[in-house]
Design goal:
Mean pLDDT: 90
Low-confidence stretches: 4-23
Strand order of the largest sheet: 1-4-5-6-7-8-9-10
Number of strands: 10
Largest sheet: 8 strands, antiparallel, barrel
Distance between the termini: 47 Å
Number of helices: 2
Length: 194
């Protein structure tokens, strides 16, 4: 029995160390709003693809490069900050026919699953809540870099991501289909260890 115990102890200890190391590998990163860009674009009567920026996103990325499937994303998007660079259109987008930002100033994205696709690419499945409606959305993300940030001297991570949503699913359907129902999302972010 003594011999069995002496054989088992190193195995148990190794298992505990591995478990602790696995948990320690997941890092919480706070989005840097100053280096987070969210751009939406759409088809305008087939002639052009205008864009609008939504600055000021905040949130947390929990990321473990060794076990990416355990990672998660929680982001708050202040749609009241939307800027089309055309003042009249920005005002229209903030109104009731579009985002109704007086009532729904913020959208949120909460991941439900992270699927590694190889070569630092991931599909991030989650729920987007916009204008009081929650629908599933998938973002296609690429890890740009992970390591110490040269300026802030903190552990940092950077991602680019893209996705598409149907605006009518969120009750934003003015001018569909002449102005596209499909809205393209383009996201770039830096986040720092908390």
């Amino acid at each position: 029995m003594k011999k069995m115990r002496s054989l088992l102890l190193p195995i148990i200890a190794a298992g505990t160390l591995y478990s602790t190391a696995s948990q320690a590998a997941t890092v919480d990163y706070q989005l840097d709003a100053a280096h987070t860009s969210i751009v939406v674009s759409w088809d305008h009567f087939g002639f052009s693809h205008p864009t609008a920026d939504i600055p000021g996103a905040t949130g947390v990325i929990k990321f473990d490069p060794q076990h990416p499937a355990t990672s998660s994303v929680q982001v708050s998007i202040p749609v009241s900050n939307i800027d089309t660079h055309v003042p009249a259109l920005t005002k229209e987008f903030q109104g009731g026919d579009y985002f109704d930002t007086t009532k729904y100033s913020t959208a949120t994205f909460t991941s439900t699953k992270v699927i590694p696709r190889g070569e630092h690419k991931y599909d991030v499945q989650g729920n987007l809540t916009l204008k009081g409606v929650t629908k599933p959305v998938t973002l296609h993300a690429t890890l740009n870099k992970i390591g110490e940030h040269a300026m802030v001297k903190k552990q940092a991570v950077g991602f680019d991501a893209s996705g598409t949503l149907q605006r009518s699913a969120f009750g934003i359907d003015k001018y569909v289909p002449a102005v596209s129902d499909a809205i393209s999302l383009s996201i770039s972010t830096e986040a720092y260890a908390k």
